[in-house]
């Protein structure tokens, strides 16, 4: 046997049992851990979005309203100042002002605002109007708009400069007209209020339509929940429902979960059925033998009965081990994560554990493994249980020596056990994967049963996409778990 390769052996421990979860149900109210409904989330999200957007649009609308109001009323100031400047004339070498009524009619369009004006000649001498009106900081242009305060109130001013170059008078005359900002502020707020009113109506309409759409979209979920609630507790058949693609993912996951539950229930039912069927007879026989031993006075006869009792307890123990092993393997098929497993490790672990010595004392066991990795994606514990059952079956029903090995060829990995006997009859091989199949004649005890060992091996092979193969050749009868080989590490 070739076993001297360097390797990093990793022992796979059985999965820890899941924590116990209370099965009690709440008769009313939401389920434990349930969060807010999608409708409530949508309403909250859209409301927050609309409020935030409304605040942003309110600032933008107010800024736009102030700009629009300023432009509108600035035109009134420009018109009034130009009218006043146009009314200035030169008489006897001095500027004379004839204030036009039209200028003040323009400014009267803002009735709540206060108006101020000043007309000054060369040297800043005030010809008419307020004496102390604020002046602009820049005097380079003939028309200047600026902000200042008038009588403690914010106001908007315009300065228009008219230049004269006549024989009797040469110089400049400045016209300053100001107006407070009450009408401008009112117009800006009016524009903002109108904009936000339209936004509020549109937002409420969007929110209402969104709620209707969500209710319509969630209606398939309500039908699905109703259908599941009305199901019989024993009905674990797949759910067939016309649902949107997004919900179909949930349906498929639920169907997968129910399929795993169905397999678990089937395993428990099978275990209970097998236990009731297979244990009744040997337990009754043990009880009868024990009753005979208690009533027997002949020491020789009593010793014979004790030997039969021991043999019966051994068979019963082996049967219980196989039943529990089968239940464990089927359970791990759905719960254990598939990992990269080297079948050489499985064969070597079984060979080194030496459990076969207790099963068949003195039997010769051999190991045949090579230097190349024989990797598969599976559960190491399940493969180990299956291989142990194959080895135990060969020791009980086959002929020594018995060999266990692993190899890979043509993209397939094989974990095999071979004994030196001829194997079962051809008509019996097709039934060896069934539970409690009668044993092969000519090998081992006559009429013995193969029990669950081969059924366990076949279940493990099918779980991981493989098969259970049997063949007879010159070395003897070989039975192997054949699985797809895993890809090489890169």
Task: Supply database-style keywords.
single chain, 490 residues, alpha+beta, Heat Shock Protein 90, 3 domains, five-stranded antiparallel beta sheet, five-stranded mixed beta sheet, 14 strands, rod-shaped, disordered N terminus
The assembly state of the depicted protein chains is single chain
Secondary-structure element order, as H and E? HEEHEEEEEHHHEHHEEHEEHHEE
> Biggest sheet, in brief?
5 strands, antiparallel
Structural class: alpha+beta
Order of strands, widest sheet: 4-3-7-6-5
Radius of gyration, Cα only, in angstroms?
50 Å
The rough form would be described as rod-shaped
Strand content: 15-25%
Total domain count: 3
Count up the helices.
10
Helix content: 40-55%
Tally of DSSP β-strands:
14
Low-confidence stretches: 1-28, 439-450
The averaged pLDDT comes out at 79
Our measurement of the CA-to-CA distance between the termini, rounded to an integer number of angstroms, reads 29 Å
Protein name: histidine kinase
Catalytic activity: ATP + protein L-histidine = ADP + protein N-phospho-L-histidine
Subcellular location: Membrane
GO molecular function: phosphorelay sensor kinase activity
Can you give me a brief rundown of this structure?
Keywords: Kinase, Membrane, Phosphoprotein, Transferase, Transmembrane, Transmembrane helix, Two-component regulatory system. The chain is α+β, with helices and mostly antiparallel strands and 490 residues long.
